[in-house]
Automatic annotation (TrEMBL):
Domain of life of the organism encoding this protein: Eukaryota
CC annotations in GO: SCF ubiquitin ligase complex
Taxonomic source organism: Uria aalge
Protein name: FBX15 protein
Domain F-box: from-to ranges: 1-42
Amino acid sequence: SMPSEMLMKIFSYLDAVSLLCVGCVNRNFYHLANDNGIWLRIYSSCFRPKRTIWKMKSEQPETVSLDCARLHDRKPGYWKKEYIFKQIAAVKTRVMRLVKPVDPYTGLPCKNKEAIKASGLSWIIVLKDKNGKEHIMEKANLSFKDTSVTILWYSTNWPCLDILSTLKLFGVTPLLPDQSRVPSKNRPRRRSLIAEYHLANLTESSVALGADKLVQLFSLNPGLLVGLWKEKNEIAFVMGSLHYHQLLERSTLGSATVQYALPPDKPVLDDVDPEHGLHGYSLHLDMHGGSCTYLCGTFRSLFCRKGDIANGYLRLTVVSLKDNTKHLPLIGTLGLSWETDAFKGNVKDCYVMDVTLLDETGKPFWCFSAPVYMELSSKASSLYDYMGHIYSTDYADSEGKVCVELVWLEETKEYFIVNLVLYISTRKVNNWYGTNY
């Protein structure tokens, strides 16, 4: 019942973030909060716009303040949109400046952590129950590695697993990053859908990674772990591992309903080299358990002979079983660390594997970050230098496979990688290089 003139007077004292929030109250508030006069004042105080008018008999242009412009020449909400677009563009310029320097070992930007902080980027998961109600989980711990960021969500009020239908992973950025330094659930934000998972029959349709005394871990593809309390069969926490390659694009350029579509690769043609696409690869490998790093190494000059192409895959041998000079020790006992408000633990024999494979030009070719587990092999060690149990770790997606063999040395209490092979899809190679293997 308050007159519009009085509301407009009140709104004129609000900042940009408060105006956007007020506009969500009802339709009348939305139209009033779109007023060009209010937003032009905000815009002018931040960007100081100028309009240039050219006179016929003068060599010098006369600059006139945009405050003198006739506001009714613009549609309602015009200066609000201009202000928001300018703010987003300013942040994007700052982020692009940070991601420009590239690490020669990983082929990825050197300052990913700084770029994420500058963009105000965070991640949330949205659980949807069978009645259509959404439950937003925001509380998370971040752990940054060389090529990935690990996110752990935990809460004391997870909805019952039996009533849930889907889980969606979103990247979230503040609509006005410079105005939203203090985190708040009510600040205007944009969502970018990264992945969607179906939770029906979770324990049957997903891969069981391992368990400790309190929780059991299940893997959802791509790159998400769900920890369930053993006694209640309810969610204890969710852990995601996101590779830096295309992370900012996926987390910011998608919409709330549609994932960001990666642009198609342009073939790197070479008519001179008859084995184009078979050599010059580099691998950066990280093996970690959230907080602990077990292995971080770079391997160069990887190649595949034409005779090693079989069953639609190129074989790249990184560590050979026969060459014990290249066998790699791991630091510590493999396991995935987790915590909640009340409990914490470590699930043994599983970890997060970050693979960054670069082509001969140093461009990221195949990248992923995913939780994996070790399986005890039935075969005994045939290596004279090692006497212990053999474990294997396998990973596969549409672009390739990774096969790792490890030996556990009881005397020194450490694992050794004795075999590490990458299998790259020939379809991926042919599309990338324009070849026909």
